[in-house]
Amino acid sequence: MRRLCGLETEYGIQIEGAEDFDVVTESMELIRCYAEDDFVALWDYSLENPRLDMRGYEVEALRNDQDELEHLQADRSKKIPLASLKSDLLISNGARLYNDHTHPEFSTPECRDLFGLVAYDRAGERILSHCAKLRSEALLSGLVRLYKNNTDFQGHSYGTHENFLIQRSLDFDSVVSTLIPFLITRQIFSGAGKVGDEEGFGNGPSSYQISQRADFFEVICSVDTMQNRPIVNSRDEPHANSEFWRRLHIIIGDANMCEWATAIKIGTLSLILDLLEDGCVPLLKLDNPIMTLKSISKDSSYTWPVLMENGRYSSAIEIQSLYLQTAQSEFGGRDFETDWLLTEWSRALDALAGDHYSLIGLCDWITKKWLLDEFVDAEGLDWEREEDLSWLQSQDLQYHNIDPNEGLSSLLEAQGHIKSLVSNDDVKNAMVSPPLDTRAYFRGRIVSRFSSYVRSINWDMIEFEVDGNVRSVNLKNCISLEAAHAYNSVIDSTHDIRTLLEGIDRLNKGDVS
After folding, report:
1. Which domains does the chain have, with CATH numbers?
2. Known catalytic residue: 100?
């Protein structure tokens, strides 16, 4: 990829065997299981402003505010300090691990390569699975289970967010309008699949959708995230020098269990952003994007017709093919990763137009549907029988269980039915070591070597306290490969905190950015 990229994943949590439990407290305690020493939350929230919009203004209030106020009042009754409640950790691999109120969340470190990002995403599963095991052992009764999915099947959704660094010189409204046709049709190969329809939050025949998240979106773009949920979040928080950069925050994606689906979801969008920055992305417009998002997800014929703004019909496959052909023309032969993406993107569209079951083990919604059909046949169930809905949804949920001994996707992977893109050693390394070619390496090594001196920390700022003096290291300009290597070499050649800060001073005088 030609840009920094990261994934944020919120996990569903259950305590099996517990008659009642506080999900906020349990999410907090789960995250605290990661810390080897006494827990200290150092995340600096003062650097965040959720009301600042990338379209050039700051809103007075968010539609989320009432929810946040209710959460805050409930949290105060627990008499737990906010820092402890959030349990916000930056860990040694450069990732962020914290309690997003009712969900444990893992945010990968910034990555430059696609397969590295996949490895860190899988590392998050293992880290949280280990925390769940420790928390289960600490409980007097009950077993903690975590699910990498996006719905509780009761009308509540939690996110899997994609973050891309893009040039601020690009007009943001143009970026959004250009990306929407791609994002809405991308679900045909990146969707995770779901039993049921949650728009009405009611029961009914066991319909099957290709997307977990499609039911929950209402608008194209907004600074809000929980109410009036947008496809693109416009919060202006680049985690970089805001003069030059934006963080494109895409919240429409599903949580994928198949590594191939994660890679093609992220990789194809990265190629579209390359086309956008190079000025050659196809300019398409849908008649009703939100309605199209939902209709594609629910179309059991898998023909996915799409009404365009000009009144003509196309199909999701045809739209994706146009993007693919443009990317092939512009970027074919650029490098191994790009050629792999172009090949797999083409393979996916060919299969979806013909034998989509050839994508079993690669595409989540197809793999899950195949598994559920096997379950229906084995247990004598019926997709059209309303009383079978809960059985099918329980199997749907088990597909996303991250316990390697229980999760259905893990069992399929162990049996060779789901293809791996990264090795077990790659994932084990990603659990403890940060990427070598981004600023996450500097941040991760600070956490593992000098955490006793860290007063506060964020993605792009680290505040130290040394000999009673407070000193900040600003990483907002540490974006390029050259800058990352410069900062990373300083910490690799340093044995004490004072020498480290002196090295950073010398580096800043050289203005490596």
Report:
1. 5-427 (3.30.590), 439-510 (no CATH)
2. yes
